[in-house]
Design a protein that fits this description.
The protein is an alpha/beta fold. Helices cover 36% and strands 22% of the residues.
Length: 158
Amino acid sequence: MSRLDSMLRRFTAQRDGLNWAAGLVEGLQGDGLDMGLGNGRTYDHMRETMADRRIWVMDRVLQCHPSCVPPEQDFLQGEAEDGLARLADIGARIVIAHYDFGFGVKEKDVEEAARFSPLIAKVMAPGGMLISGQPLVGFEAVQGPEHIAPDRYYFYKT
């Protein structure tokens, strides 16, 4: 599979998975969280499709498209450990989260996701959904939309 085809497959899985998970948490009270702002595409999609929720965003640096800059009070700039600790300290209740941190080296990305998993668990509300490009640990894995290959995106319930 070409890198372009792989990217398209990932973006489609990401979008469809977010939409699917948003439907599952529709009746729950709480916020959204985008871990890894990057260009801002996922955040933009989350704020459009979950307009009734506050969407927290974290990344080391703010370098997204100008149309995707989150409100200053919702952007947790810096290391993920610090941002997740801040959310836990203020008692944030996250019902839907997207995990997209990574270096682009699979082994390092999987290791980092495992290390962050307990920190993410502290901010997730019971019954919440996690959508991730990397495997996470300590969460209940669930089958996502049938058309998404199990190794393409990961889905978890808290």
